[in-house]
## 1
Amino acid sequence: MPSTDQSSSPGSVSPHPKNVSTAMLVAAATVRQAREHAELAQQAQLARACLERCGAGGRRLLWLVDHALGRACLSALEALALPGLRGHYAWRKRCIAQWADRACADGAAQAVLIGSGYDGLGWQLTQRQPALRVFELDRAGTVALKREALRQLRADASRLHPIGIDLQRDDTLDALLSDPGFDPALPTLCVAEGVLMYLSSTRAQRLLRALAQQLSSPVLVATAMELRDGRPRFRRERPWVRGWLQRRGEPFRWGCERDALGEWLAECGWRLRALAEPGDPDDPDPSPGEWLFLAQSAAASPPR
């Protein structure tokens, strides 16, 4: 990583290269899932190129993913920490991609990916949607690293606009409006995957309220942690995981009960449209505990 700052909160400077962040774990899971799911091959290419630039921590993860013994160790660690997490990541990304494609088909002209990490959704959207402009917001170090990875892959990133931002402190709309390619009057898809839980409730509300108020007919695809025993966490999460996240500077700060999610979104100016059911018999979430939802600006006309 370009920086040695230990903080790894959303949108902050990148963590020390010897540490392993949750963004790196998600990237490693993507590389591993691509061994079984060919449709993830392109995303895995980008995830691998990013991990190769993540210092010793990234190289260790790739070694583990690329060797049978390493994969067995990762499976054992997952069972000890949060059973089903790798499958949860795949389930989450699959649902988000479907909703994102639907939003583009319904007229979204630009997409804003908040806390995009090393994910390849933005890159894929620009390839599937020839007129779509994508703006990715994340920590400055992550943005620089991902740009280099795309350059290595010789990817066409002409419609991909990376923006370095500290989501804990900076104004998201100011950062977007500083990019001459961004137009708040255009229909916009906003994606906040695995990021709101790292913000305080007040900060998360401020972020979503600004998007709802200042963008034209926005659609939001996002995730929020479920509250368990009064704190945000996965249902099958082992007790020691909380301390590990604290030491990495990535504690879960906010969560929401299912029945309160619609009201919470309404306070931010959004109307809840759909919630991915973790217990769906046709496509269950392997590790429940994170609500994945689709929302529309409350000021926009409701869908027919």
## 2
Amino acid sequence: MKVISYNLRKHRAAGELAALVEAHAVDVLCLQEADTRDLPAEIAGLRLADATQRNRLGLAVYYRANTFQAQEVRAIGLKKSLHDYVLKPAEERMLGVRLRDIDHGREIIVASFHAAPLTALNSLRRHQIRTALSALQDLGPGLPALMVGDYNYPVFKENLGQKVRDQGYELTLSDARTYTRYRFFRGHYDFATSNGFDIAHIRTLPQGLSDHLPILITADVSSRRPPAVV
């Protein structure tokens, strides 16, 4: 399964999506900072599962309709930062979709995630990540889950990785940094947390109109999946 995650930077990079999907034979597309009022029902053969409704800049998940069926969708709000209270950019920061593989009959969960910006503390982002991962298990108890997106967590990822492992998930970075706009804030912002998936690799794709670079995740359902920690 191939998944692309892309922060569109206030929808500026939306015109690049069809070419990205076609060039990389993508199965699932997870978006952040999308103008959900301007999203098409399909992008290069991928169908819109759903998009957040209460965000000024929202999340969306697309899936390949001849491979998967969308069974259930859930958007959740997470603990707010001061930035959220003042500017109100995002009421819902996680959008999860339970997908059924048409050929194999198995179900998986894929989610798009956007953590609070750098003006918030890492402790708040860890709280958001922990809550989002727990919500994925509620969406499909025991199912393999993959959450990708903009984690806004460029430093101290070792600590985050341990917290994620304590919850039964693995944190996987891409092969190159994903944010380059400001010299002192460059680094890995966009990555994946997963349970029950073997991540073959995550590749950072060339930069387009966004200040974030898209990432391409290649993964498969693990044959031996540890249970999630509740």
## 3
Amino acid sequence: MKSLLERFVRRRNPHFALHQAVSTGILLSFGTQTAGSLLRGCRLWLRGRASGGAMLGAGVRFQHLGRIRFGKWLKVGDYARFSGLGQGGLVMGDSVSIGAFSQVIVSTSLAEPGQYIKLGNRVGIGEFAYLGGGGGLSIGDDCIIGQYFSCHPENHLHGNYNELIRLQGVTRQGISIGPNCWIGSKVTVLDGVIIGAGCVVAAGAVVTRSVPAGSVVAGVPARIISSRAPQPVTAEAINNILAAA
């Protein structure tokens, strides 16, 4: 039974391997839950969409499904909601995982519909996330993201004190997160931010400015505390090595 389950899960995650401590009872419970999720995913056929092996939790909602595209093996936790209302819609790659109670909403406005949300292959996002697509949001392949993550690619204008803020309009620049990033729990990313590939963002950070690839950032507002990118070999470094030889 374990080998059968491993082969099935590896269709979605080729690197998966069962731990030896996992009991048969746990496997049966997991298998039952997975079967139920696959059956719920099959309901997409009733709306004219191939499921692609989608595994959906209880209460998952798709609004404006005609503007939502997803790859194989989409996995969604209970009571998550997706809306494709927007100029570019919502696009998710293969093996995307979205945690329970998350909201992935391109736009809620018919007067000023948002741009798009694009999630790359193998993006994993924890529970209670909020992803907006007002100015456009893209998250690259293989990003792993903790719970309560939020992205807000839109800002309200507020310069006129004598006018209602809600009537002053918005600015939209968009948010881009490169591939292979690790973003901790309760991180907020604001409009106009570009996070380079391979970055690490500490839990609780509020990212207000763009950061280059390989950065490790933390704080409110977030600042760069180190870099995990390979450092270039300078002539001074080479001379120091030769001098010490």
